[in-house]
Design brief:
Spore Coat Polysaccharide Biosynthesis Protein SpsA, Chain A; 2 domains; nine-stranded mixed beta sheet; 10 helices; binds uridine-5'-diphosphate; binds magnesium ion
Length: about 325
């Protein structure tokens, strides 16, 4: 049977890693036979890396990749996806929110001709009301803004064929919204419904600040609709100005032109803030363009540990693959 790669980004997951390794290995042994688990340590500050090294030394199915610093979930995942060698690739979080036991039905769906099998959350346990509510609104808003079909309530938990992964690995952008990029690929993508468990241990590595940044990455990465907003705001302001001009002209003709401090300040404030908002939106796109124009590597791998041997990597091996 062809090799199955399991890619797991880990950031300060010392409490979850051993249990994840146990449950994932059991699931993989049972349903895939030949497999490798590629852990990516995203610059953890706890004992995650020593733990991963130990696993790599004792379990020949484990590959431990260490990034040079914290690059963020999406880039850690990207690093793992360039390093894995399987014909089929499973992307899963280390915190056991996505049940490893789902591998079996997912593999069955892939075998039946799908290129991507994505987990779609029926329910989310142990998540704050705020997170589920904002996520629900966000995915629906995103759906309206973009042209491609991005499934709602789906995270990065998915199983992919090698040919889908090859396309994904060829996408060079820095500001990554991987679930959207996979949708963009097309081919046959099927959902598998599941109930998302609470975190096994530790706390979420996605505070509000990162969530907002991620949401902006998603929207700017897949849509220029916000830029179009400037034209709409401009048109609305022009229509309003026309009405106001008629009014002021009429007042002047009737000889009633006095005072007007309140209306004047209101207008100045309104126009000022609309202009700043539009500038901000343009800035978001321009800033991203600037970062992309530098063409820096997406991530830096410091070390890879396979079966007890440690290979020190040269800097900037973004595109290099494991030899
Ligand atoms: N993660 C990472 N780098 C980061 C933040 C998170 O590699 O900077 C990993 C984390 O260890 C976990 C996965 O990404 O395996 C998802 O993160 P988390 O569970 O905190 O997100 P949530 O499920 O709360 O959205
Ligand atoms: Mg999680």
């Amino acid at each position: 049977m062809s090799l199955l790669s399991i890619v797991v980004p880990c950031y300060n997951e010392e409490e979850s890693v051993p249990e994840f390794h146990r449950r994932m290995s059991a699931a993989a042994r049972q349903s895939a036979g030949h497999y490798e688990i590629v852990f990516v340590d995203d610059g953890s500050t706890d004992r995650t890396w020593p733990l991963l090294q130990e696993l790599a030394a004792t379990d020949s199915s484990v590959v431990a990749v260490k990034l040079s610093r914290n690059h963020g979930h999406q880039l850690a995942l990207t690093a793992g996806l360039t390093q894995c060698r399987g014909e089929r690739v499973l992307v899963i979080d280390a915190d056991l929110q996505d049940p490893p036991e789902l591998l079996k039905p997912m593999l069955a769906l892939l075998e039946s001709g799908a290129d991507v099998v994505y987990g779609q959350r029926r329910t989310r346990k142990g998540e704050t009301k705020f997170k589920t509510a904002t996520a629900a609104v966000f995915y629906r808003l995103l759906r309206r803004l973009v042209d491609i079909e991005i499934p709602v309530d789906a995270g990065d938990f998915r199983l992919m064929s090698r040919r889908a992964l090859e396309v994904l690995n060829r996408m060079p952008e820095h500001h990554r919204f991987i679930r959207g990029m996979v949708s963009w690929i097309g081919m046959r993508q099927v959902p598998i419904l599941y109930d998302r468990d609470p975190r096994y241990a530790g706390e979420t590595k996605y505070p509000l600040r990162k969530m907002i940044r991620f949401a902006i990455d998603a929207i700017t990465g897949f849509s220029v609709a916000p830029l179009r907003l400037a034209s709409f705001l401009g048109a609305a302001a022009a229509a309003l100005s026309l009405l106001l001009m008629c009014y002021t002209l009429g007042s002047w003709l009737l000889g009633e032109t006095i005072a007007g401090w309140t209306s004047l300040t209101s207008i100045v404030l309104l126009i000022g803030s609309v202009q700043l908002i539009v500038l901000g939106i343009i800035g978001e796109y321009l800033g991203r363009l600037y970062i992309e124009a530098k063409r820096r590597p997406l991530f830096v791998i410091e070390t890879i540990a396979v079966g007890g041997s440690v290979q020190d990597h040269e800097m900037a091996v973004a595109e290099a693959s494991r030899s």
